[in-house]
Amino acid sequence: MPVIRTDELTKRFPGVTALDRLTVDIDAGVVGLVGANGAGKSTLIKILLGIAPATSGRASVLGSDVVTNGPDIRAQVGYMPEHDCLPGDVSATEFVVHMARMSGLPADAARERTADTLRHVGLYEERYRPIGGYSTGMKQRVKLAQALVHDPTIVMLDEPTNGLDPVGRDEMLALIRRVHTDFGISVLVTSHLLGELERISDHVVVIDGGQLLRSSSTTDFTRNSQALVVEVTDRSDDVVAALAEAGLTADRDGRHILVTLTGDADYDVIRSAVARLGVGLIRLEQRRHHIVEVFGEERTDVGAA
Ligand SMILES: Nc1ncnc2c1ncn2[C@@H]1O[C@H](COP(=O)(O)OP(=O)(O)OP(=O)(O)O)[C@@H](O)[C@H]1O
């Protein structure tokens, strides 16, 4: 059974249709919800949480209808909102304990779960300092911790990498992947950057103007292309010439050589040519597409990493 299901889901604001007859099934695992700014990602999450009503259509989370079973759903779902919503004058520990208590955990369990969760997201001594003095990366970790503290079945993370530098972004993405691999919690994570979710998602849903553009497993998005990537220790230009002589179409692409794949025999032809020149073969594999390249072919107005 899908963990999230929408059927002709529509949300209209005055002058704007934020979701336009969106029908999609989302299975357990890590699912990336991608779309440009204003595509309708936050609106969808708010409807799924029962915070905002849909104009028409239906949606369910973990088999429960969002209109009739909002409290049940919220008990099993963790939510990390996009915007800064943290009180500056309390510590991470105080805040996350409070959120755990709000979710119904008894005081002792709330304190224990808070310590475990803050450790898991990588906040240590700092957890006793007021949140107001935290970096953006630390605040994002507190927001993630409060979404996890009551041990939900699924978490919905709205733009968790917003405002982070490249290193902070990589750390947050790795942390999100571990939420699923370490605890089995399903993750719905949004981003306006196609490239970053490709790394951690099992499945990607792309929306644009409130409509479903595509819903596919990440491997379908990044299907193999008909090209081989060859990387050698040196003399790349000589390798290209040798491959051309052997009847293959080969071109330099920075450090790599791209060879048009014609059949399985190409692998042996390449290995022999490289060996004859006496250079080392570092890499020989079929090239994979990146999601952003796939969308470059289909549409160009969805954000690229
Ligand atoms: N409360 C509201 N009142 C009026 N319009 C709204 C409201 N909330 C969202 N919208 C509009 O609905 C559309 C979808 O917004 P939404 O916030 O869901 O997009 P998003 O994909 O999450 O983008 P972002 O990442 O920029 O938040 C936008 O055009 C937005 O301006």
Automatic annotation (TrEMBL):
InterPro entries: AAA+_ATPase (IPR003593), ABC_transporter-like_ATP-bd (IPR003439), P-loop_NTPase (IPR027417). Signal peptide: none annotated. It comes from the Bacteria. SUPFAM superfamilies: P-loop containing nucleoside triphosphate hydrolases. Residues 4-234 form the ABC transporter domain. Pfam families: ABC_tran. The keyword Glycoprotein does not apply. One of its GO terms (molecular function) is ATP hydrolysis activity. Keywords: ATP-binding, Nucleotide-binding, Transport. Belongs to the ABC transporter superfamily. This is ABC-2 type transport system ATP-binding protein. The lineage of its organism: Bacteria, Bacillati, Actinomycetota, Actinomycetes, Jiangellales.
